[in-house]
Automatic annotation (TrEMBL), chain A:
PROSITE patterns according to UniProt: FBOX (PS50181)
A GO BP entry: SCF-dependent proteasomal ubiquitin-dependent protein catabolic process
Name of this chain's protein: CBN-SKPT-1 protein
UniProt GO cellular component terms: SCF ubiquitin ligase complex
Name of the gene encoding the protein in the UniProt record: Cbn-skpt-1
Residue stretches making up the F-box domain: 93-139
Pfam families per the UniProt record, alphabetical: F-box-like
Annotated PANTHER family: PARTNER OF PAIRED, ISOFORM B-RELATED (PTHR13318)
Species per Swiss-Prot/TrEMBL record: Caenorhabditis brenneri
Automatic annotation (TrEMBL), chain B:
Region annotation Disordered: where it falls in the sequence: 166-201
Lipid biosynthesis in keyword set: no
Pfam families for the chain: Skp1, Skp1_POZ
Function: Probable essential component of SCF (SKP1-CUL1-F-box protein) E3 ubiquitin-protein ligase complexes, which mediate the ubiquitination and subsequent proteasomal degradation of target proteins. Regulates cell proliferation during embryonic and larval development.
SMART domains: Skp1 (SM00512)
Occurrences of domain SKP1 component POZ (ranges): 26-88
Biased composition (Basic and acidic residues): 169-194
Organism lineage string: Eukaryota, Metazoa, Ecdysozoa, Nematoda, Chromadorea
Pathway membership, UniProt: Protein modification; protein ubiquitination
Protein known as: Skp1-related protein
Entry keyword set: Ubl conjugation pathway
Length: 424, 201
């Protein structure tokens, strides 16, 4: 209301095109052609009127004369008796030349994501086209502050590889419940999802994981893994690599859901996620022989991984290539004996800080033909290290500091499970 | 331009049909005539199919009337055929769905597309209509280049786009113009609103 009253005194005034002062900054880039001819389409001095008070007087002013010359150019021949304030005729070239949405998509598929975003902010049509663009197939939101609304929007784009690692989620702006419920009903075509270090709330995890059905690679490092989340994860039957390291809240039911349904796992990283004996029982009971790399480091102290579990594992998955059972105090000489006698294809063994194992037994791993890498940080005292190296001359001792089982990023930070996240 | 004195525009003057090559004749919607070689036509899927379906012999081409392309004007069609002649025989790129497409604009194309906004959009439309994949890619790349590193406000200025609000306002104004009664109703509404507004003071 205040706007209308504010315009009352001036019934007619010249429109000093307020965009004009931007000219300098916009066209500073000489390399980009600016199409001078089309600028003539904007009426330089159009009359701005308000129909609020003196409408009778206004009607007597014939504005048509002013527009006539331009109207001749137009085929539609729309005559505007009185120009409203916002009704400047700007001819949208995309509408004038009937550019179909597919072509708009082709045009903008040449852009980088940053430019695509500013294009999407121009108008509804561009937003709709850009939203569906294939340009989003690989999206990197690493270490950026985002809101729940962003999450919802991201889940509706055509994303195949999404990195949310370390994304700082704003918890103060919850998304509209309608969006949330719509998201719960939708499905996504995500195949790779990296949520490590992102610390999402349960609600946010639901937004991200509920629509996923086609995940092949998933990292939940450091997030909550309660029964709800486990339920969402278990919907992805084609899961090949699962990283649940450092998660908290896993239960027997959760583990049952995940390992009952995900039968195609090739790599599993369940380190430091509070595995106790019942959960380990569930896990090892349901594991398939497709597993090649497994990391069970840091299970619950005094109630975690023990020698019987290694026996069970050797009967279930004889073809294991990489095993990490670091920081399990209950592991003792019997387990190492199993490692030596079974698992004919084992190349990597990590026994860091397994204080229950006698170094004199570890030395026998030197005789295992398939083994190449052995990591025993903390098991051997510094004084004996020299001698240990001599006795295990065939092996590479302590050459690996980190275990990369099922981890999205190995070495170079620009790649996630082999997909290049960089922009060209 | 009248039909009688319509000039025959030779796109590729050096290659007048002396050899045994087939040259097809096309006519734009403003009655300009073009001669285009068979090889160049292969760049356009639409025209290629059309020509195959017609099955003209070389005598037919001369005797029968030129093939009319109804919805493209002469200026645009000339550019299209110039491009086709220059790129004839080149392989048509297959869309493998890879995004971003890596498109290089060759020097010839850059010169050809040194045209104003309107013509460029007409060219894109024609390339889409005639299904010339590479021309579409190149011309789209050209339009996309204009958008690089711009803010939304600058983009509106570059492409001369109205914002959604302006668009709607313009549509409303156009509608009102067609239906004067609607305008009267709106005026009355504004009047009432104004009176209501004044009562606040």
């Amino acid at each position: 209301m205040s706007r209308i009253i504010g315009r009352l005194p001036s019934s007619t005034l010249l429109d000093n095109d307020d965009c004009e002062d931007e000219d300098g900054s916009v066209f500073a880039d000489e390399t980009i052609s600016v199409f001078p001819s089309s600028f003539e389409l904007i009426p330089r001095k159009c009359t701005k009127t308000s129909i609020s008070r003196n409408s009778a007087r206004l009607k007597s002013i014939n504005l048509n004369e002013h527009v006539k010359s331009e109207q001749k150019k137009e085929k539609d021949g729309i005559s505007l008796p009185i120009r409203r304030k916002d009704a400047r005729i700007i001819q949208n070239p995309f509408q004038k030349y009937r550019v179909p949405d597919e072509v708009v998509d082709v045009i903008f598929s040449n852009l980088r994501k940053r430019d695509l975003l500013s294009v999407m902010r121009v108008c509804k049509q561009f937003y709709a086209v850009g939203h569906e663009s294939k340009r989003w197939a690989i999206t990197d939101v690493m270490d950026r502050p985002i809101t729940e609304l962003t999450l919802v929007t991201l889940m509706r784009r055509r994303i195949k590889v999404l990195r949310l690692a370390g994304a700082k989620l704003d918890t103060t702006l919850p998304v509209d419940p309608r969006f949330f419920s719509a998201c719960m009903l939708s499905t996504s075509r995500l195949e790779c999802l990296d949520l490590s270090r992102s610390n999402l709330s349960q609600r946010q995890l639901a937004i991200v994981l509920k629509p996923c059905r086609k995940l092949q690679f998933l990292s939940l490092e450091g997030n909550i893994l309660d029964n709800h989340v486990a339920g969402y994860v278990s919907e992805n039957k084609n899961l090949r690599q699962l990283d649940i390291s450092m998660t908290h809240g896993i239960t027997m039911d959760g583990a049952r859901m995940i390992f009952d349904k995900c039968k195609n796992l090739e790599q599993l990283n369940a380190s430091w996620c509070g595995l106790d004996r019942p959960i380990l029982g569930v896990l090892l009971d349901r594991i398939t022989d497709k597993i090649r790399k497994i990391n069970l480091a840091g299970s619950v102290r005094n109630f975690g991984l023990c020698n019987e579990h290694i026996d069970l594992l050797s009967s279930k998955v004889p073809d294991l290539v990489d095993i990490d059972i670091s920081d399990n105090v209950e592991i003792s000489d019997a387990a190492v004996a199993t490692l030596i006698s079974r698992f004919p294809k084992l190349i990597f063994i990590s026994l860091n800080r397994c204080y229950g194992v006698d170094p004199n037994i570890i030395v026998h791993l030197n005789g295992k033909p398939s083994l190449t890498y052995l990591n025993v940080h903390g098991c051997i005292t510094d004084n004996n290290m020299e001698m240990f190296f001599q006795m295990c001359d065939r092996l590479k001792i302590n050459s690996q500091v980190f275990n990369y089982t099922a981890k999205p990023t190995i070495g170079s930070a620009s790649k996630v499970w082999g997909y290049d996240m960089r922009e060209y | 331009m009248s039909v009688e004195n319509a000039p025959v525009v030779d796109v590729d003057e050096a290659a007048i049909p002396v050899e045994k090559k087939m040259y097809y004749r096309f006519e734009s919607n403003d009655k300009k005539e073009f001669r285009v070689s068979e090889l160049a036509i292969q760049q356009s899927e639409t025209l290629n199919r059309l020509v195959e379906a017609m099955g003209y012999t070389s005598e037919d081409v001369e005797n029968k009337p030129a093939i009319a392309i109804e919805n493209i004007d002469g200026k645009t069609l000339k550019l299209v055929f110039q491009w086709c002649e220059h790129h004839k025989g080149e392989a048509i790129p297959v869309d493998d769905g890879s995004v971003p497409k890596i498109v290089e604009i060759p020097e010839f194309d850059a010169k050809l597309m040194d045209i104003d906004n309107g013509l460029l959009f007409k060219l894109i439309w024609a390339a889409d209509y005639l299904n010339i994949v590479q021309l579409l890619n190149v011309s789209c790349k050209k339009v996309a280049n204009m958008a690089q590193g711009k803010t939304p406000a600058q983009l509106r200025r570059v492409y001369l786009l109205p914002s959604d609000e302006e668009d709607e306002a313009a549509k409303r104004a156009a509608q009102e113009a067609q239906d004067p009664r609607a305008r009267e109703v709106e005026e009355e509404f504004e009047e009432r609103k104004r009176q209501g507004g004044n009562s606040f003071f």
